[in-house]
Amino acid sequence: MRARVVHIAAAAFVTASLGAWLATGREAFTRWPDARLEAADAPVSSAEQDLLDQIGIGSDPTTDAPRIESRFAFGLVPGGPDPRHLLSVATSTALALACSAFVVLRARFSKGTTR
Q1: Torsion of CA 21, 22, 24, 30, to 10 degrees
Q2: Of residues 60, 87, 74, the one with CA closest to residue 19
């Protein structure tokens, strides 16, 4: 009976992590908001723009630069070695599988022992 509850909870945990992945934009890697990315999208001052135009790398006013989104996204795989980036569908699935495997192995090896 306990094993069934653990398996159902593990399946619900994996389903919830897939739901979070879908709700946050179906990104491949987990990412968090970053102030440096937000600063990259800030408009350039007129003095900086004049300097960029003088050296020949000014922006063309007819084209829009792609915006870098600085937001949370629950990814399929971890976004890096930072502990907060380890949160992902893959790590939550591995945790759920480990819990289910532990219950199965415990039941298998404890059948011969008396309690």
Answers
A1: 30
A2: 74
In this structure, are residues 73 and 88 in contact, taking their beta carbons and an 8 Å threshold? no
What are the Cα distances from residue 113, in Å, to 16, 49, 96?
36, 77, 26
- Tell me the helices (H) and strands (E) count for the chain, helix number first: 4, 0
Q: pLDDT of the chain along its 115 residues, tens only?
A: 789 999 999 999 999 999 999 999 999 999 999 888 887 777 778 888 888 888 888 666 656 667 778 899 999 999 988 899 999 999 999 999 999 999 999 988 887 665 5
Task: For residue 27, give both structure tokens.
Answer: 């990104």
Question: Which two tokens mark 44?
Answer: 């350039």
Which residues are registered as beta bridge partners of 73?
A: 31
Q: Please state the pTM of the whole predicted model.
A: 0.73
